[in-house]
Structures are given as C-alpha cells and as structure tokens.
C-alpha cells in the first residue's frame, strides 16, 4: 500500500515491525512471537 511513496520521507522504514492481534489467548500470542522472532 505504500509503494507509491517508496524512496520518500513517507516510506515505511525497513526495520518497522507491524503487529496486528485480535482476541487470541495471550499465551498463544507470546508463543507465536517467540517462534517468529527466534530466527532473527
């Protein structure tokens, strides 16, 4: 959605982490995050 502003001051930073959560159990969210970020 931000392709049109790539290379400008409005561009989304490369190091941005977007996290979208809903009504999941907090323990499930923590486990998922640990698994996802464990490979970094």
UniProtKB/TrEMBL annotation:
Gene Ontology MF term list: lyase activity; pyridoxal phosphate binding
Keyword Lyase in record: yes
Gene Ontology terms describing biological process: transsulfuration
Cofactor(s) it depends on: pyridoxal 5'-phosphate
Keywords: Lyase, Pyridoxal phosphate
Keyword Lyase: yes
Similarity comment: family membership: Belongs to the trans-sulfuration enzymes family.
Name of the protein this chain belongs to: Cystathionine beta-lyase/cystathionine gamma-synthase
Native source species: Garicola koreensis
Organism classification: Bacteria, Bacillati, Actinomycetota, Actinomycetes, Micrococcales
């Amino acid at each position: 959605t931000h392709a049109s502003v790539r290379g400008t001051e409005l561009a989304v930073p490369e190091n941005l982490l977007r996290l979208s959560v809903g009504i999941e159990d907090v323990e499930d969210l923590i486990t998922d995050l640990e698994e996802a970020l464990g490979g970094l």
